[in-house]
Amino acid sequence: MQQVIISVVYHTGQGHTKQIAEILAENLQSEFSRVHLINVDEVKEQFDLLHESDTIVFGCPTYFGDISAGFKQFMELTGGFWYSQVWKDKLAAAFTVSSSRCGDKLNTLISLALFAAQHSMQWISQGIMPRYCSNEQTEGQNRHGSYLGLMIQSDNARELNPPHPGDILTTELFAKRILDVTLKFKNIKIYNYEQSTN
Protein backbone atom coordinates (compact mmCIF):
# COMPACT_ATOMS: atom_id res chain seq x y z
CA MET A 1 0.00 0.00 0.00
CA GLN A 2 1.25 3.45 -0.91
CA GLN A 3 1.80 5.66 2.14
CA VAL A 4 2.83 9.24 2.76
CA ILE A 5 5.46 10.13 5.35
CA ILE A 6 4.65 12.96 7.75
CA SER A 7 7.06 14.20 10.40
CA VAL A 8 6.18 16.48 13.31
CA VAL A 9 9.25 18.37 14.52
CA TYR A 10 8.82 20.30 17.75
CA HIS A 11 10.56 22.09 20.59
CA THR A 12 8.93 22.16 23.99
CA GLY A 13 9.70 24.12 27.13
CA GLN A 14 7.25 23.06 29.83
CA GLY A 15 5.68 20.19 27.88
CA HIS A 16 2.64 21.99 26.42
CA THR A 17 4.00 21.97 22.86
CA LYS A 18 4.83 18.28 23.19
CA GLN A 19 1.20 17.66 24.18
CA ILE A 20 -0.05 19.24 20.96
CA ALA A 21 2.61 17.48 18.87
CA GLU A 22 1.42 14.15 20.27
CA ILE A 23 -2.25 14.92 19.55
CA LEU A 24 -1.33 15.92 16.00
CA ALA A 25 0.77 12.81 15.44
CA GLU A 26 -1.96 10.55 16.80
CA ASN A 27 -4.56 12.07 14.47
CA LEU A 28 -2.22 12.07 11.46
CA GLN A 29 -1.74 8.33 11.81
CA SER A 30 -3.72 6.22 9.36
CA GLU A 31 -3.28 3.19 7.14
CA PHE A 32 -2.27 5.65 4.43
CA SER A 33 0.44 7.45 6.42
CA ARG A 34 3.58 6.87 8.43
CA VAL A 35 4.02 9.50 11.12
CA HIS A 36 7.18 10.40 13.02
CA LEU A 37 7.38 12.60 16.13
CA ILE A 38 10.77 14.29 16.49
CA ASN A 39 11.96 16.47 19.36
CA VAL A 40 14.50 19.03 18.13
CA ASP A 41 16.87 17.83 20.86
CA GLU A 42 17.24 14.60 18.85
CA VAL A 43 16.92 16.03 15.34
CA LYS A 44 20.57 15.71 14.32
CA GLU A 45 20.12 11.95 14.02
CA GLN A 46 16.80 12.35 12.18
CA PHE A 47 17.63 14.56 9.21
CA ASP A 48 17.56 11.62 6.78
CA LEU A 49 14.02 10.91 7.94
CA LEU A 50 13.04 14.55 7.38
CA HIS A 51 14.57 14.41 3.89
CA GLU A 52 12.33 11.41 3.12
CA SER A 53 9.17 13.04 4.50
CA ASP A 54 6.41 14.29 2.22
CA THR A 55 5.17 16.76 4.86
CA ILE A 56 6.97 18.36 7.80
CA VAL A 57 4.96 20.00 10.57
CA PHE A 58 6.90 22.52 12.67
CA GLY A 59 5.90 23.31 16.26
CA CYS A 60 7.29 25.46 19.05
CA PRO A 61 6.24 27.70 21.91
CA THR A 62 5.91 31.42 21.39
CA TYR A 63 8.33 33.18 23.73
CA PHE A 64 8.36 36.98 23.80
CA GLY A 65 6.39 37.10 20.57
CA ASP A 66 8.61 34.82 18.51
CA ILE A 67 9.89 31.28 18.03
CA SER A 68 11.71 29.62 20.92
CA ALA A 69 15.51 29.51 21.02
CA GLY A 70 15.48 25.72 20.86
CA PHE A 71 13.54 25.72 17.61
CA LYS A 72 15.66 28.52 16.16
CA GLN A 73 18.71 26.36 16.77
CA PHE A 74 17.09 23.58 14.74
CA MET A 75 16.29 26.03 11.94
CA GLU A 76 19.90 27.14 11.75
CA LEU A 77 21.09 23.52 11.60
CA THR A 78 19.26 23.18 8.28
CA GLY A 79 21.61 25.73 6.75
CA GLY A 80 23.96 22.87 5.92
CA PHE A 81 21.60 21.61 3.22
CA TRP A 82 19.45 24.71 2.56
CA TYR A 83 21.55 25.73 -0.45
CA SER A 84 20.87 22.43 -2.22
CA GLN A 85 17.11 22.83 -1.53
CA VAL A 86 16.61 19.26 -0.33
CA TRP A 87 13.15 20.16 1.01
CA LYS A 88 11.95 21.90 -2.16
CA ASP A 89 8.24 21.24 -2.81
CA LYS A 90 7.76 19.25 0.35
CA LEU A 91 4.67 20.32 2.25
CA ALA A 92 4.95 22.31 5.49
CA ALA A 93 2.57 23.33 8.27
CA ALA A 94 3.04 24.76 11.75
CA PHE A 95 1.63 25.25 15.21
CA THR A 96 2.58 27.30 18.24
CA VAL A 97 1.62 27.51 21.90
CA SER A 98 1.60 30.35 24.42
CA SER A 99 -0.12 30.95 27.75
CA SER A 100 -1.99 34.07 26.66
CA ARG A 101 -4.85 34.21 24.19
CA CYS A 102 -2.82 36.12 21.63
CA GLY A 103 0.76 36.29 22.84
CA ASP A 104 1.83 37.48 19.38
CA LYS A 105 1.58 33.89 18.14
CA LEU A 106 0.98 35.15 14.59
CA ASN A 107 4.54 36.46 14.49
CA THR A 108 5.81 32.96 15.33
CA LEU A 109 3.71 31.39 12.57
CA ILE A 110 5.00 33.98 10.10
CA SER A 111 8.58 33.13 11.10
CA LEU A 112 7.89 29.42 10.58
CA ALA A 113 6.23 30.07 7.21
CA LEU A 114 9.23 32.16 6.12
CA PHE A 115 11.54 29.34 7.21
CA ALA A 116 9.54 26.93 5.04
CA ALA A 117 9.67 29.42 2.15
CA GLN A 118 13.46 29.63 2.46
CA HIS A 119 13.46 25.88 1.83
CA SER A 120 10.99 26.32 -1.10
CA MET A 121 8.33 24.27 0.67
CA GLN A 122 4.58 24.43 -0.02
CA TRP A 123 2.53 25.78 2.92
CA ILE A 124 -0.60 24.17 4.36
CA SER A 125 -2.82 26.79 5.98
CA GLN A 126 -5.08 25.85 8.86
CA GLY A 127 -8.23 25.86 6.72
CA ILE A 128 -10.65 25.70 9.66
CA MET A 129 -13.39 28.26 10.12
CA PRO A 130 -14.43 29.49 13.58
CA ARG A 131 -18.01 28.83 14.65
CA TYR A 132 -20.63 31.37 15.73
CA CYS A 133 -23.79 30.98 17.81
CA SER A 134 -26.27 33.89 18.03
CA ASN A 135 -23.64 36.12 16.40
CA GLU A 136 -21.01 35.32 19.05
CA GLN A 137 -17.91 33.28 18.33
CA THR A 138 -17.89 30.00 20.24
CA GLU A 139 -14.99 28.51 22.20
CA GLY A 140 -14.94 25.55 19.83
CA GLN A 141 -12.95 25.04 16.64
CA ASN A 142 -10.46 27.74 15.68
CA ARG A 143 -11.45 29.82 18.69
CA HIS A 144 -8.35 31.98 18.18
CA GLY A 145 -9.34 32.89 14.61
CA SER A 146 -6.02 31.74 13.13
CA TYR A 147 -5.61 30.88 9.46
CA LEU A 148 -1.87 30.70 8.78
CA GLY A 149 -1.40 27.83 11.22
CA LEU A 150 -2.56 26.32 14.50
CA MET A 151 -2.59 28.52 17.61
CA ILE A 152 -2.94 26.93 21.04
CA GLN A 153 -3.41 28.56 24.43
CA SER A 154 -1.88 26.77 27.42
CA ASP A 155 -2.13 27.65 31.09
CA ASN A 156 0.73 28.79 33.33
CA ALA A 157 0.51 25.89 35.77
CA ARG A 158 3.67 23.97 36.58
CA GLU A 159 1.78 20.70 36.26
CA LEU A 160 0.75 19.73 32.76
CA ASN A 161 -3.01 20.13 32.37
CA PRO A 162 -5.05 19.07 29.30
CA PRO A 163 -5.41 21.69 26.56
CA HIS A 164 -8.66 23.62 26.12
CA PRO A 165 -11.32 21.37 24.49
CA GLY A 166 -11.67 23.83 21.60
CA ASP A 167 -7.93 23.66 20.99
CA ILE A 168 -7.97 19.86 21.05
CA LEU A 169 -10.78 19.86 18.48
CA THR A 170 -8.90 22.34 16.28
CA THR A 171 -5.73 20.22 16.52
CA GLU A 172 -7.65 17.13 15.44
CA LEU A 173 -9.22 18.98 12.50
CA PHE A 174 -5.84 20.44 11.51
CA ALA A 175 -4.33 16.95 11.47
CA LYS A 176 -7.10 15.78 9.15
CA ARG A 177 -6.47 18.75 6.85
CA ILE A 178 -2.72 18.09 6.76
CA LEU A 179 -3.34 14.44 5.87
CA ASP A 180 -5.96 15.33 3.23
CA VAL A 181 -3.71 17.91 1.56
CA THR A 182 -0.68 15.60 1.67
CA LEU A 183 -2.56 12.77 -0.02
CA LYS A 184 -3.96 15.10 -2.68
CA PHE A 185 -0.58 16.73 -3.27
CA LYS A 186 1.05 13.32 -3.73
CA ASN A 187 -1.80 12.45 -6.12
CA ILE A 188 -2.70 9.42 -4.06
CA LYS A 189 -6.27 8.52 -4.92
CA ILE A 190 -7.27 6.43 -1.98
CA TYR A 191 -11.00 6.06 -2.32
CA ASN A 192 -11.42 4.10 0.89
CA TYR A 193 -9.82 7.01 2.74
CA GLU A 194 -11.98 9.57 0.97
CA GLN A 195 -15.13 7.62 1.75
CA SER A 196 -14.18 7.11 5.38
CA THR A 197 -13.65 10.83 5.98
CA ASN A 198 -16.64 12.25 4.10
Automatic annotation (TrEMBL):
It comes from the Bacteria. GO terms for molecular function: electron transfer activity; FMN binding; NAD(P)H dehydrogenase (quinone) activity. One of its GO terms (cellular component) is membrane. Residues 6-179 form the Flavodoxin-like domain. Its cofactor is FMN. This is FMN reductase. It comes from Segetibacter aerophilus.
